What does this fold into?
Amino acid sequence: MKREIIITADGSATIHLPDWNEQYHSKHGAIQEAYHVFIKHGLHHFVGQKMADKDLDITILEIGFGTGLNAFITLLEALKLNCSVRYTGVEAYPVALEDIRRLNYTNKLDVPNLKNVFEQFHEISWDEVHNISETFKLEKQQKFFEDIKDQSRFDLIYFDAFGARVQPELWEVAIFKRMFEALKEKGVLVTYAAKGSVRRAMQEVGFTVERLPGPPGKREMLRATKLL
It folds into this structure.
């Protein structure tokens, strides 16, 4: 499928798929969306609930590893939060390294010295755990989302699949059942999506779901918690 690099409203790049008229990130701001949805309402929310815990070690699953932006920002934030992260990114169709090198994330995040680290995310082998730093481990898994079979393994899920308009099968009960099973008790799933059908699918498998203010260009987003 053809891929084009475009610049979003906050100056950060993303990949556009003209055949689908779909982007890997919001055209209203790739970095802004990542911070608002996955960091503010995901990582910071989860860490805030665990502030009494010392030596916090967080397991994160990303549905749609894509450009690696969410993983890279999580690495930066984990350093600030003084926590360790084991990050698993699932992606069926990896982005070519030549496209990754055309993205401007390290400059826009004001960490040009970490460009090699960002590229390392995409150069390392799949289906192996890699120590990116002393406090950040990354495992990329190349497979379809419906093949995820983890049980009570993750604290936090970044659900960043392509939208339901182009891939509705990724937003149905069967997928969210796998997400519910993959989370530990009191685990959290965050996504940019806010459709009523998505919220109902989450609730059907047992999630407690909140509507939250969305990132630029979206009125709302969803956060789901596994409460047993």
Notes: The two ends are 42 Å apart (CA to CA).
